Amino acid sequence: MSGTPTSHIEARSMSSSGSKPGGWRSFPFIIGAATGSSLASAGIIANLIVYLIQEFNIKSITAAQISNVVNGSSNLFPFLAAIIADSFFGSFSVALISSCVSFLGTVILALTATITSLRPHPCNNDGSNHQCTPPSVFQYTVLYAGTALAAIGFGGARFTTATLGANQFDKPEHQANFFNWFFFTWYISSVIAITALVYVEDNVSWVLGFGVCAVANLIGVVIFLLGYRFYRPDDLKRSALLDLVRVLVVAVRKWKSQLSSRKEDYYSVIDHDYDHDGVGPVLPAAATPGKRLRFFNRAAQITDGDLKSDDGSIEKPWRLCTVQQVEDFKTVIGILPLWSSSIFLGTPIGILSSLTILQALAMDRSLGPHFKIPAGSTPVIALLSTSIFLTLLDRVLWPGWQKLTGKSPTPLQQIGVGHVFNVLALVVSALVESKRLKIAHKHQLQVQHDPTVNMSVLWLFPQLVLMGIGEAFHFPAQVTFYYQQLPQSLRSTSTAMISMLVGIAFYLSTALIDQVRRVTDWLPDDINHGKLDIFYWMLVLLGGINFGYYLLSSTLYKHENV
After folding, report:
1. What is the CATH number of domain 335-562?
2. Distance between CA atoms of 322 and 343, rounded to whole angstroms?
3. Does pTM top 0.70 for this prediction?
4. DSSP letter at 121?
């Protein structure tokens, strides 16, 4: 990058031992940072619903909506962090700042559990009277500040840390190995947090549980900093996403221009030598714009005043784009229908992950005479299901499929199977909830004073297993699909696109729950008196419609050779 001091790069070009930075020497520090961050994030977010209900006297459905917003933010911010890292500050700086922000958020949440004045008085539940004091404005402010900082920090650190780790390697196979270990570490750390830390929070104390999360986050930051001299400095280039915005702006500004059919009227250059402003040496013409979405070809069409008279380079970057930038923009536009179909694929996952915890709170969670399954730990079944089935897919199913058919299943086929399992998980959820409500209605006198239904929480496991299997099919397939189909200039943010999709899905799940509450009586604060099963059947219908939309989009999609 033109603005980077050469002395800074030279100072880090060699480690203290005289060897070049990067490679596997940086691996322990990256993995250590990821472990601390994932332990803290899973320990906070997985049990947030229970914390809001038990310690802040927040109604159950409202707590579920808050949890969805937090999950959405932690999955949406990686996309913004990727843009900031790629365009301005680099992966190391964004990952470090995000980790510090998440640490501040966990400390604030730990303080809400420690200082009694930061949370409302416990509910008065003596059997004849049930009164709960809602949080004050100040208490809400501190709570929301902590959760917002934690969500933004965890989200910003997740993929920028992964990107920094992959940047330490030159060979693609080494990068692939790093990603495998990175996400394996992330999954295992999350499982440990959702089981051990959530158990501590539920059965020992929230202070200890949140305190361990804060300490884990801090240790991760320290380990990350200790590896600084082993990291390669970021080689920042202009943002490919900014190029996409530029294409749209320039095409709109030139909407009155008459399109030309002559090749020489379009600015076709090889743009890998461009600097941050998009201005560089003019090289021989590479291509002409395609006929698809011809309106945007105007962005690469040369008009008076677009080029410098001395060397023929771009005079004003926001008045002219290259042909390659225009074609990259068209590729992104063409992939949007498939991308949008995956938004609702993630929406039921967000709904199930929150409402399943509410169901668990209203069920018998005893496992033997001395152990009680924490409600916040129930989503670990989906994580374990995903991890186990990913291994089966890699070692058994895909090799067997290849032997039978002579070819591997395409990413779009795998995503389609994921859609099917997602709908099946919703069907099972509706059937289980219908059975749970029947049991609850038979014991209304008992339920008035004890909302726990005499039905084992193990009934929730099948739907979580199906949801995990579906994720094993569609999540890695989506990463592969976007990586293969998006332009090369956008590959560094392809995984962040998946994260943004999940974030939007969580926000949509919150909006959907809120709208259903407004127009129906399906989701009261006491789900034993609601109709959650009908809500699940509605999701089954919407999931089926979305699957049809996906089949249409995948059939019409034109694969790109990028």
Report:
1. 1.20.1250.20
2. 31
3. yes
4. P
